[in-house]
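User: Here's a chain of 268 residues. Predict its fold as tokens.
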Amino acid sequence: MTFTVITENDESQWNDVTGEAYHFPKRYLDFLKPGTKVIYYKGKLKNKVFKKERLTNEPHYFGVATIGAVNEEFGSAGRKFIAEIRNFERFLDPVPIKIDGQYMESIPERKKSNYWRDGVRPISEEVYIQIVTSAGLYNYSSKEVETSSYGFGEETTSPIYREGEEKTRTTTVYERDRRLRAAAIRHHGVNCAACGFNFGDFYGKYAEGYIQVHHINPLSHLDGPVDVDPKTDLVPLCANCHAVVHYKPQQVLSVTDIKALIAVHGKR
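Assistant: Prediction complete.
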């Protein structure tokens, strides 16, 4: 399995669609084979027009996905390709390119002066794990049973927890108490609160108990640590509804909003 960082610019000559398609020149073909695990990256904000569409003005990682089919684009100048993007998941909070003063990515000595010019950058599995774990999606290396948007399991917990403590690094990230997911599921169940989708019913035993959990009031929008009650502050959402809720970082939708969209546009 290979791992790669792909750059999405606010302004670009490429007709990319976040989470759906990624265009690139031939020189990156070896780095974007079908099945490649990719991390989405944005550089520093240059045009304030795009400020509301970003998680932060600073360089950061903002999503994870897998490369699907790759096809050559005919009729364009030079050899260009388009990759299908699958399983895209946008991070709820930006992941900075530096942690404790050290870059997440390992920069070769020969590329120190121009490393960030490359729109597509191969990375190691270790770097991929560090970025995804920093995003709070899952703890790849832990031997303990943990629950997250990628995990399954049961845990013992009390009804209310405190989370959202700030850790000051290059930017501010927010701690999440992983026990909250288990508590929310015990109260709300594993059906999507917006569309009613149940992973176990659709995919069978393999996916039983899987669901993502949404903070009704995103931690990044709060002024500081808060007490979180799984009964009133969290709701289970399927991956699709959860992605749409956070599709525009500055306009987080409510479950009621999603239900309204489904009522008008959803397939029955």
